[in-house]
Design brief:
This protein is mainly alpha-helical. Helix content is about 75%, strand content about 0%. The protein has 15 helices and no strands. It has helices at about 5-25, 30-45, 50-55, 60-85, 95-115, 135-160, 165-195, 200-240, 240-250, 260-265, 270-285, 290-305, 315-330, 350-365, 365-375. The longest helix is centred in the middle third of the chain and has 39 residues, at about 200-240. The chain is rod-shaped, with a radius of gyration of 32 Å.
């Protein structure tokens, strides 16, 4: 009844593998994990009936299809173990891991050839059914069990270290998935020993849950990137009106005006960074259009406004004087040197700077500032 979990898990693995492809192509340190995920997804997919049907068009013998699946599965386990050891700083284990994998694959081929004629490489329910020797399965399951168990414990060991929280969770989820794979091989060994029908129905759901855990672990960094992208997008849109009004009055501060189509090709973080700089540059230009008397009046008005929280007073003062400066520039008034540092020194970090400008942008669109803008446009 839980067999559908396997399909969901495989789809999840493929989704993560596809989503991580651009990152893997750009950054070499991401490729081992991507390569391992792809191999895991391939190995699991090869056991699905539609994939088996496609393979049957190219490979005439059913037992050779089974053998190919098992050989790919060994390569998959070796690749995952290699990735984990690479991440743990044990690069020298690369040659032994793949050498043992090649020996295991060779042993499986020899045992398959030496066995009696058989239709499938499956555990025979009884000794009367021709199949590969049991040694084939002992070697196959033992390699998987040892490789997956090592991977799982290494992931959990590193997941308890003083590393970023997101990475800890990712390692634990991925490690849990691999340890569930170890449970699968234990169940298959139990089935090999007992030939009991109790174990076989558990293989598919355990595979599905294992795949879901590994997909979740591999997807966590993607989720973090998506969350960061959403924050950048929200900030970019939040500064839209303020940026548009300020740059319309001071077009010289815009770095590279151009078509929207060309702007889409620029990374969102870079567009947001440029928007922040352009707003700051526009503020520096516009501050010379605010007189000391106007600024004094604005400060008194903001301090007396009960709707403005104490920590937002500076943001409202800035929004007020920007409105006054824009109106003065539209009225054609001449600028004059401003001694006060109205634009501020700016924050040390981009995140703090964005947060401060978002407060100004929110104040700029507030009812009180809109009322003030209307009063300047229509003094009567």
């Amino acid at each position: 009844m839980l067999a559908w979990l396997e399909n969901i898990g495989i789809v999840a693995l493929w989704s993560v593998a596809i989503a991580r492809t651009p990152q893997a192509l750009r950054r070499s340190e991401q490729r081992p994990l991507w390569f391992a995920i792809v191999l895991i997804a391939v190995a699991m997919s090869m056991h699905l009936e539609p994939v088996t049907a496609v393979l049957a068009r190219f490979v005439s013998s059913a037992h050779r299809i089974d053998l190919i699946k098992h050989l790919v599965s060994i390569l998959d386990a070796a690749a995952v173990l290699w990735f984990i050891l690479q991440a743990a700083g044990r690069q020298r284990r690369t040659i032994p891991v793949f050498s043992i994998a090649v020996l295991v694959m060779g042993a499986l081929v020899l045992l398959d050839i030496s066995g009696p004629p058989h239709d499938r490489n499956q555990i025979a329910p009884s000794s009367d059914t021709p199949s590969v020797p049991d040694a084939y399965w002992w070697i196959f399951f033992a390699f998987h069990l040892i490789a997956d168990t090592i991977c799982g414990f290494v992931c959990w060991s590193y997941g308890r270290r003083n590393i970023p929280r997101l990475l800890r969770y990712a390692l634990r989820l991925f490690g849990t998935g691999i340890l569930l794979a170890s449970l699968l091989w234990v169940l298959k060994l139990a089935y090999l020993v007992t030939r009991s029908t109790v174990f076989a129905p558990l293989f598919s759901p355990v595979t599905g849950i294992e795949a879901l855990f590994m997909a979740a672990g591999a997807a966590l960094p993607l989720m973090a990137q998506l969350r960061q992208w959403w924050r950048y997008r929200s900030a970019h849109r939040g500064l839209e009106l303020l940026w548009r009004d300020l740059t319309a009055a001071t077009p010289d501060v815009v770095f590279a005006p151009g078509s929207r189509l060309r702007a889409v090709g620029v990374p969102l973080q870079l567009r947001l960074y440029r928007r922040v700089i352009e707003i700051r540059d526009a503020m520096i230009v516009l501050r010379d259009y605010v007189s000391s008397a106007t600024l004094h009046q604005i400060r008194r008005h903001a301090d007396r406004d009960d709707d403005v929280q104490a920590h937002l007073v500076d943001a409202y003062v800035t929004a007020y004087w920007l409105v006054a400066a824009l109106q003065a520039r539209r009225d054609g008034r001449a600028p004059h040197a401003q001694e006060a540092n109205l634009a501020g020194d700016g924050a040390q970090e981009l995140t703090e700077e964005i947060g401060y400008l978002l407060h100004i942008a929110a104040a700029y669109q507030s009812p009180s500032v809109r009322t003030y803008r209307a009063s300047l446009a229509d003094p009567a």
